[in-house]
């Protein structure tokens, strides 16, 4: 009996390996593309709270359960998990849900770029057969347990920060990115009013999203300008929310997706990139050459499309200026023109490139960009309710994290 | 200086010890690759220009230019509660503008008593003892060279 079991297991394994081994012809390696290898088939997200009193585990579990139910996929099929670090571990999730087939785990150490970069990991796993059903998930209780997040244990180059920067009182993302914003204002004439446009647009979008933390709380320019100073040019409303919440996205191959409950959203192209000094901002030769500067052209080329073809963009809006910077580096406008671009109204829900129709990190909630993927999927499926865009065939989603790591995905829905 | 609990550098951390030994003598020192001569900051495990592993430390002078800044309104580290608002500066060394230091604008030169220096303005290092370490603050350098518009942009 035991031998039978072993020989069967070995046969299964070898056929799997044979089916997915890199193809070699006459000594030449054939690259396996991950373009279009993954389809998002399930999404799950809690609403964003403050002081929920819940643990990250409980929030992640609610989102994972919702994503599985949304897709109509049984948990026993899940064999890939992509986690946010530091956070709820793949071990905790797989044990709690009984994912006994788990054979592919990864955690991209890219801060807020983790979510989009994990779409690449999932695509790679599905393209090669390393996994068949992959969950990307996050559970965070920033307000309930802020000390866990205060020192950013995942940030690279800790010794530079604690030894050479903390003694001068420079220790947090708002303060780091503030000097980049100030330099951009100097070099390109970007204005405080243009930063305000980003904050006010995100808040306006949240008014159409009942799940947004800032739903029902409007923001005027006067409120914005009168808010407390955090780190010039950033005042309170230039900074993203800190909220509790959970989110999960389930992916499988487009072939399997065809038999599932929801219209599939294909990851048509996705890439990650890293700045010249991913461990330090101050000595980076070019402050505006970030990971996204490299990721964006790669992702658009992979999807055989261009920024101009996007019906909307979900931009990782940790701070107002970073929306302007990422619009530039994604190629939606030239470097230096992001300020006038947002001031023109282009990023409004009714503009030429609606940005963050859910309200983003600034006004929906801080789910580390998982909420940007979820919103893109809702729009592409036609399930965005009062904020549904008239045209939603292709949407770009960006991630920004650590000190400038970046990722971009082109998501394509059934109406593309 | 009596900001209790304020984070200070570990003077025994080997990679940065020569820097703090330098500030104690009123000198800004940075490592340069022994093989190719390229200066680098912050000090890293290898030379990004040639991959060399050996470095020699030398003074880079006490002059620089303001590259960027932020005035911090909310303290996020212990010991800074009574300091806000204060201004953090990024300063490009005059002797090698590729080298940029994170520092603090000398409180004696902060608003409202003084206007903030502009990006590109010349600054000079001020060596400030705090407990057993000497930190580096920066103040406007009225005797410094006036930058050309091109230099400010670079």
- The number of strands of chain A is 13
Helix content percent band of chain B: under 10%
Q: How is the biggest beta sheet of chain A arranged?
A: 9 strands, mixed
SSE class of chain A: alpha+beta
**What's the alpha carbon Rg of chain B, rounded to whole Å?**
16 Å
Q: In what order do the strands lie side by side in the largest sheet of chain B?
A: 3-4-5-7-6
Mean pLDDT of chain B: 92
Shape, principal axes of CA atoms of chain A = globular
What is the ordering of alpha helices and beta strands of chain A?
A: HEEEHEHEHEHHHHHEEEHEHEHHHHEE
Distance between the termini of chain A: 52 Å
What's the helix-strand series of chain B? Answer: HEEEEEEEH
The general outline of chain B is globular
The greatest interface between two protein chains, and residues involved on each side, is: A-B, 35 and 41 residues
Distance between the termini of chain B: 36 Å
Strand coverage percent of chain A: 15-25%
Q: Can you count the beta strands of chain B?
A: 7
Could you explain how this protein is built, in words?
The complex is a heterodimer of chains A (416) and B (154). In chain A, 38% of the residues lie in helices and 16% in strands. Chain A is of the alpha+beta class and 416 residues long. In chain A, a hairpin with a 3-residue loop joins strand 12 and strand 13. In chain A, helix 8 packs across helix 12. Chain A is globular. Mean pLDDT of chain A is 91; it is low at 6-22 and 144-151. Chain B is mainly beta and 154 residues long. Chain B has 2 domains: 10-60, no CATH class; 62-154, no CATH class. Helix content of chain B is 8%, strand content 33%. Chain B has 2 helices and 7 strands. The longest helix of chain B has 8 residues, at 17-24. Classes of the chains: A alpha+beta (416), B mainly beta (154). The A-B interface holds A 157, 159-160, 162-172, 175, 178-180, 182-183, 186-187, 228-235, 280, 282-283, 285, 287 and B 6-10, 13, 15-16, 40-42, 67-77, 80, 83, 85-86, 88, 90, 98-104, 119, 130, 133, 135, 152-153.
């Amino acid at each position: 009996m035991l031998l039978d079991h072993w020989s069967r297991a070995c046969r299964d394994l070898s056929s799997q390996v044979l089916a997915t081994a890199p193809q070699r012809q006459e000594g030449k390696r054939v690259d396996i593309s991950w373009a279009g290898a993954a389809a998002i088939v399930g999404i799950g997200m809690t609403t964003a709270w403050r002081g929920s009193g819940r643990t990250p585990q409980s929030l992640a579990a609610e989102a994972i359960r919702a994503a599985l139910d949304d897709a109509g996929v049984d948990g026993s099929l899940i064999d890939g998990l992509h986690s946010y670090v530091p956070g709820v571990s793949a071990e905790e999730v797989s044990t709690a849900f009984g994912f006994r087939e788990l054979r592919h785990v990864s955690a991209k150490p890219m801060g807020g770029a983790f979510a989009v970069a994990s779409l690449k990991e999932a695509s790679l796993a599905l393209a090669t057969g390393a996994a068949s059903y992959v969950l990307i998930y996050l559970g965070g209780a920033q307000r309930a347990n802020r000390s866990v997040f205060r020192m950013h244990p995942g940030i690279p180059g800790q010794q530079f920060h604690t030894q050479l920067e903390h003694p001068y009182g420079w220790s947090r993302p708002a303060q780091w990115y503030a000097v980049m914003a100030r330099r951009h204002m100097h070099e390109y004439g970007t204005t405080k009013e243009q930063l305000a446009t980003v904050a006010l647009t995100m808040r306006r979008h949240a008014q159409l999203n009942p799940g947004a933390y800032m739903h029902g709380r409007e923001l005027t320019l006067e409120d914005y300008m009168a808010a407390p100073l955090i780190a010039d040019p950033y005042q309170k409303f230039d900074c993203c929310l800190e909220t509790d919440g959970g989110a999960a996205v389930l992916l499988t191959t487009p072939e399997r997706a065809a038999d599932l409950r929801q219209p599939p959203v294909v990851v048509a192209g996705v890439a990650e990139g890293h700045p010249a000094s991913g461990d330090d901002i101050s000595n980076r030769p070019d402050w505006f050459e970030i990971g996204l500067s490299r990721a964006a052209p790669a992702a658009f080329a992979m999807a055989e499309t261009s920024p101009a073809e996007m019906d909307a963009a979900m931009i990782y809006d940790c701070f107002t200026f970073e929306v302007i910077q990422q619009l530039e580096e994604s190629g939606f406008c030239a470097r230096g023109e992001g300020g006038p671009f947002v001031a023109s109204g282009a990023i409004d829900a009714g503009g030429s490139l609606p940005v963050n129709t859910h309200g983003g990190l600034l006004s929906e909630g801080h789910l580390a960009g998982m909420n940007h993927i979820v919103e893109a999927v809702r729009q592409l499926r036609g399930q965005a309710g009062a904020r549904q865009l008239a045209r939603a065939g292709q949407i770009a989603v960006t991630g920004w994290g650590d000190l400038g790591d970046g990722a971009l995905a082109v998501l394509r829905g059934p109406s593309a | 200086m009596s900001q209790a609990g304020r984070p200070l550098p570990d003077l025994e951390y080997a990679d940065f010890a020569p820097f703090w030994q330098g500030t104690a003598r009123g000198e800004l020192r940075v490592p340069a690759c022994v093989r190719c001569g390229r200066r680098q900051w912050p000090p890293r495990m290898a030379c990004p220009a040639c991959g060399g592993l050996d470095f020699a430390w030398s003074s880079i002078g006490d002059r620089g230019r303001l590259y960027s800044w932020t005035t911090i309104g909310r303290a996020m580290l212990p010991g800074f509660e009574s300091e806000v608002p204060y201004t953090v500066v990024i300063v490009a060394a005059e002797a090698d503008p590729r080298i940029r230091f994170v520092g603090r604008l000398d409180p004696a030169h902060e608003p409202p008593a003084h206007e903030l220096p502009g990006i590109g303005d010349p600054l000079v290092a001020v060596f400030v003892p705090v407990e057993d370490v000497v930190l580096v603050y920066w103040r406007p350098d009225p005797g410094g060279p006036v930058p050309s518009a091109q230099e400010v942009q670079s």
